[in-house]
């Protein structure tokens, strides 16, 4: 999984990464180990910053963060902050997920920071942090961002109500 993230958008020595989640949340494994195995620096988000999307967005800038996870409830605050400060952002990799997200919102992030790679992760905690990843954010509609394809070197099965495989592009 961590290799797949690195292949989509690598971070390394000199890069700065954030740790926003709690240790009990599966995304913490990504947040902690992705920077540590690549030589990047891990910054723990202060408790008072964690509660505000605007404060967190400013904190990302103040700490020159290159790689972060932003929870869904903060994405609109981040968008608002970017509208005013996009030239200041150092972000190059952004993980989102957990719940359905409008693809148009993620496109707006890439419009503001052209070098940014947005990765939508999906997967039940019992399986891994993410079972699928989608980083080809490109549709201009208000559709929900796809869950993507299986993490490298894995296979997934999307099933219907009768536990039968569904064709690609069909909800399961």
Q: State the low-pLDDT regions, or none.
A: none
Structural class: alpha/beta
What is the subunit arrangement here?
Answer: single chain
Please, what is the average pLDDT? Answer: 91
Order of helices and strands: HEHEHHEHEHEEE
**For the CA atoms, what is the radius of gyration?**
16 Å
Strand order of the largest sheet: 3-4-5-6-7
Into which percent range does the helicity of residues fall? Answer: 25-40%
Count of DSSP H/I helices: 6
Distance between the termini: 23 Å
Tell me the major beta sheet. Answer: 5 strands, mixed
What would you say this structure looks like, in words?
- With 172 residues, this protein is α/β, with parallel strands linked by helices.
- The protein is 31% helix and 16% strand.
- It has helices spanning 2-8, 27-38, 47-50, 53-62, 75-85, 103-112, and strands spanning 16-19, 41-44, 67-69, 93-97, 117-122, 132-134, 149-150.
- Helix 6 links the parallel strand 4 (93-97) and strand 5 (117-122).
Chain-wise SSE layout:
Blueprint: H1 2-8, E1 16-19, H2 27-38, E2 41-44, H3 47-50, H4 53-62, E3 67-69, H5 75-85, E4 93-97, H6 103-112, E5 117-122, E6 132-134, E7 149-150
Parallel strand pairs: 1-2, 3-4, 4-5
Antiparallel strand pairs: 5-6, 6-7
